[in-house]
Every structure is written in structure tokens, then in C-alpha cells.
Amino acid sequence: MLWSERADAAQEALRRHYWNPGIAMFNIETPCPNGDCNTIFHYWWMAHAADVLVDGLLRTGEAVYGETLAELHDGIRRRNGGVYPNELYDDMEWMALAWLRAYEATGEEKYKETVHILWEDIQSGWNDHMGGGIAWHKSQLAYKNTPANAPAAILAARLYRCFGSAEDLEWARKIYDWQQRSLVDPATGFVWDGMNRTGDGSIDKDWKFTYCQGVFIGAGVELWRVSGELGFLVDALRTAEAAKAELAADDGVLPDEGSGDGGLFKGILVRYLAELSLASEEAARFAVPMLAVNAGVLWDAGRSAACLFGTDWSQAPADPVSLSTQLSGVKLLERMAVLEKLGFADHENKP
Length: 351
Fold this sequence. Notes:
Protein name: Glycosyl hydrolase
Strand content: 5-15%
Mean pLDDT: 97
Organism: Paenibacillus rhizosphaerae
GO molecular function, one term: hydrolase activity
Structural class: mainly alpha
Strand order of the largest sheet: 4-5-6
Pfam family, one: Glyco_hydro_76
InterPro entries: 6-hairpin_glycosidase_sf (IPR008928), Glyco_hydro_76 (IPR005198), MUG_Protein (IPR053169), O_gly_hydro (IPR014512)
Distance between the termini: 24 Å
Number of strands: 7
Low-confidence stretches: none
């Protein structure tokens, strides 16, 4: 199948150009002679790397993905001082989401143990500053943002689905309610980034990122799945429409948000747009064409000869190419492969 073959090529490029067996993690850019580029430990990038390995494993069943996941799980722990928690609540949420998917895909108990360790730590970030919400950083408890809350709602809902604890569902609802009340524009559904960053209670409405839209869409979809309440799905679709109107170009292509952390942002949005596509016919009619446009542009114009992807999906990247941007490209192609397998190709060209 076309998109599965393209996802294979992207995954092979990820392995060939970024995997570093000496540290059991991915290099943070390529080229990276002798691993010299790894001056910073990008913890949350490694969580997204684990996520795309799960994508490959679920799509192909090939043992190499499971083997690399196991190595990466150990490599991250070693690099993080022998433990999984760190100082950033949003980072830990991404790590927990990745290893929960890995546990579901493999049944490996060590991944489940990692998730529960992280989830216990994440819950400690909730406090009464700004009316609730999970803090962004353990040293900055009064700063609340979407990256520390919407992924936590996704995680809590998925934990409830997997293990059936009513307490996790309560957490998912509580976090979602705070997020919607505090950081979603009631007029449009567009998601703001954060509040009280400078200590004056103000909201960063000018920080407009695909990341924030993606995680709120994901939270709505996951809560709809576990509750059956249509309002969550309505919220998710409304935010998806606002994201396209506010952030996409006239042709529907998502923006260049830079390398570094920003290189992951589009990948987060496309992952959860794909989840939204699976929720209803109406959602598929909106989201699948948007995903298909971006995937087509990425493959036709944004791919290097080595199948590497940069910050701008409409042009091939120059060296060095960040791991973050490569992961976003892989995510998009993996999501298209899933949609193709499930028969969504007939939605690709519909307005």
C-alpha cells in the first residue's frame, strides 16, 4: 500500500540516520559524527521517538521495532540518572503516553510500571494556583499551560480505558474541565498556550502553536471514547476547524514552527487529527483531506534524497536535520498508512 511503503522509507531513514546504539537513544540531529551533537538530553523527544516505534510495530509487526523500544526504554532511564521522572510535568506526560502505547502493543510489564511511576508523579503537579490545573515545572508551580494539561487528560482517559480505575476518569474530566475553562477561546475553540507565565495572571494568547490544538483535540477524542458523551467530540472538531483557519496556509499546509522543540509540534497535531478522523464521518470529512494535503506536500516537496524531513513541509531540508522534525514527518506518514488501511482514501480529496 502506498502510504505504508512511504512510512517504511521514513522509518528506515530514522533508524539509519539517527539511531545511536552506543547510547541506546536517537541522536538529536543528523549528521552527528561520533555522537558529538548530543550535548543536550532531549527527554521529551525520546518519548516521541518511542511513540513512532510503536507506530511501526503496530503497522508491520516487525521485531526490530520492539527490540529498539526495549533498548530505548533502558537508554532513557540510564541517561536520566536511573529513574524516569524529571522536573517537567509535560515531559513526563509524553513519556507516560508513549510507554502506555508500548505496553498495549507488547504486553511488557516494565512499560506499565514506568507509566504508573510517571502518572503518580504527574498528579502531584495539580495545585490551586490559577484555579487548578497541572503546573508546567516543579520549580514554577503557578505557571499553567496547555502542554502540561491536555496531554495529562489524554493519559488519564487512556489509563481508565486500559485499567478501569474510576479515579483516572475523574482526573481526565477534572483536567479537561480546567483546560477548557481556562485556555480555550470560548468564541472559536482555538487553544491558547498558557497563563501566569510572568506572574501577572495573563494568558499567552499570541503564542499560537499547532501543538496546543493537537493535544486538546486528542483530549476531547479520548474522553468521548471512554464516556460516549458527544460534547467532547464537538469540542475536538471545533478546535480542529479553528486550528486550520488560524494556522494553515490557504492551501491547507501547516506552518513552519522551527527546529528544536517546535519541530515536534506539527507531528502532535497530525497524530490527533488522525484520531479525530476515526471518530465520526463528519470528522473524517474534515480531517482526512487536511492530513492528505500535508502528507502529499511533504512527500513530493519536503523530502530529501535520504528521506529526511525539515521544518517546512513544502521544501526539502538542508543539513543538519533535527530529530524533532524527522519524527513529525514519520508521524504524518504513519497516520496516513493507518487511514489508508482502514479505507479512508475516498475522503482524501473531498472538501
